[in-house]
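Exercise 7b. C-alpha cells:
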C-alpha cells in the first residue's frame, strides 16, 4: 500500500476517467454501487452493466448498500463509489465494515472537496479531513490514496485479489458527470437484481 502518499501530494484526476479505468478491469460480473449524483452519472457513462447499481437521492449510503451486497454474495467482488461529502455523512459505516471484514468489498472515494451537486460548497475534506486517514483509523488498515491514474489501476488490481476490505482515495477535479442516469428506481433495482442472479429480467 502507498502509506507514504498523502491526500495533498496526489495528482488531481478526472472522475469519469478513473471510473472508466475501473470498469475496464472488471471481468467477472463484479458488482459496482454508484453513489448519488456525478458518481453514478459517470458510472452509467463508463459502461452500463446489469451489475451496476445507481443510487438516487440516498446520500451517504453507497458503502452500507455495498456492504449488504458483499455479505449476501461473498463470492462476488463488490466495489462502491462514493463522494467525499456523502461519506462524511455516514462515517460510521467504515468502522462497521472494518468490524464485519467482508473480504470482497472495495470502497473508492472520489474526493474533490466540495458538495458539487448542491452548489460547490466546500466539504471538511477540502481542508481538515483526510478520508484515507479516517478509514485507517476506523480499522481499514489496507487503505491508500491513489497517487495517479496508473497507481489507481494498481490499487484496483490489488483489490481484485484481496482478502480484506479496503478503501481507495482518489482526488478528482470538479468537472460534472459525463452522463445522466435513467431515473427509474424500479428498473434500476430489477436490472441490478437480475445482474446478481437473484431475479428474472422484467
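Sequence design result:
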Amino acid at each position: 500500500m502507498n502509506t507514504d502518499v498523502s491526500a495533498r501530494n496526489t495528482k488531481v484526476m478526472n472522475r469519469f476517467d478513473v471510473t472508466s479505468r475501473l470498469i475496464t478491469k472488471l471481468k467477472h460480473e463484479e458488482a459496482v454501487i454508484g453513489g448519488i449524483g456525478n458518481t453514478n452519472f459517470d458510472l452509467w457513462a463508463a459502461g452500463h452493466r446489469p451489475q451496476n447499481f445507481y443510487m438516487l437521492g440516498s446520500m451517504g449510503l453507497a458503502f452500507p448498500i455495498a456492504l449488504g451486497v458483499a455479505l449476501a454474495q461473498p463470492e462476488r467482488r463488490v466495489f462502491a463509489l462514493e463522494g467525499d461529502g456523502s461519506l462524511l455523512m455516514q462515517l460510521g459505516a467504515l468502522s462497521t465494515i472494518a468490524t464485519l471484514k467482508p473480504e470482497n468489498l472495495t470502497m473508492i472515494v472520489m474526493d474533490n472537496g466540495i458538495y458539487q451537486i448542491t452548489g460547490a460548497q466546500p466539504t471538511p475534506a477540502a481542508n481538515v479531513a483526510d478520508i484515507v486517514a479516517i478509514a485507517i483509523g476506523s480499522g481499514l488498515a489496507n487503505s491508500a490514496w491513489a497517487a495517479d491514474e496508473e497507481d489507481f489501476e494498481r490499487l484496483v488490481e490489488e483489490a481484485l485479489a484481496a482478502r480484506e476490505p479496503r478503501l481507495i482515495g482518489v482526488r478528482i477535479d470538479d468537472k460534472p458527470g459525463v452522463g445522466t442516469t435513467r431515473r427509474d428506481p424500479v428498473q434500476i433495482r430489477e436490472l441490478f437484481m437480475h445482474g446478481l442472479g437473484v431475479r428474472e429480467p422484467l
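Instructor comment: Residues 149-161 form the longest helix (13 residues). The chain has a mean pLDDT of 88.
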